[in-house]
Amino acid sequence: MPRDRRILILAIGLALAACAAPAASPTPTAPAPPTPTTAPPTSPSPAARGTQVTIRNFAFQPAELEVAVGTTVEWVNGEDSVPHTVTSGTPGYPAGVFDSGRLRPGDSFRFTFQQPGTYEYFCSIHTRMRGRIIVKPKPVSEAAPSNPSASPSPTPPPSNYGYDYEDGR
Fold first, then answer.
1. Which domain holds residue 133?
2. Exposure class string for 133-150: b at 16+ Cβ within 10 A, else e
3. What is the pLDDT of residue 79?
């Protein structure tokens, strides 16, 4: 994939992530156990946001994807006639971060990446199938939105309410 296209996809993903980011700093939570699904999504599909990986011809396409923290990636077994898995880690060394279970033809699996880093993954049925998700931290301007009302304002000096206490009036 040309470098300019990857940068454009990353910029679009970051812009969408910024729009969806909560106003307050999120509290890290353990992700819910992932389950394969064929139900249509209620929000814009990951494919529309450039975060879909298609399983085609016994390969993950694209094999490498760069996303921002908080991005949901969807893998779709769309064109192969056999089941596959999406398992974090490498063959023989699964990482335990995510595992789709068997995805039959037409099934999909989603995972939201909450921590920056590089996530290797593979198909546990066809171990030569491998991919990588690179999760970049959100820029400071997106990670901690500025909120002027959240910072304390300077306290004005105390007033003497019109009295001059030194000379008693």
1. 3-23+38-143
2. bebbebeeebeeeeeeee
3. 83
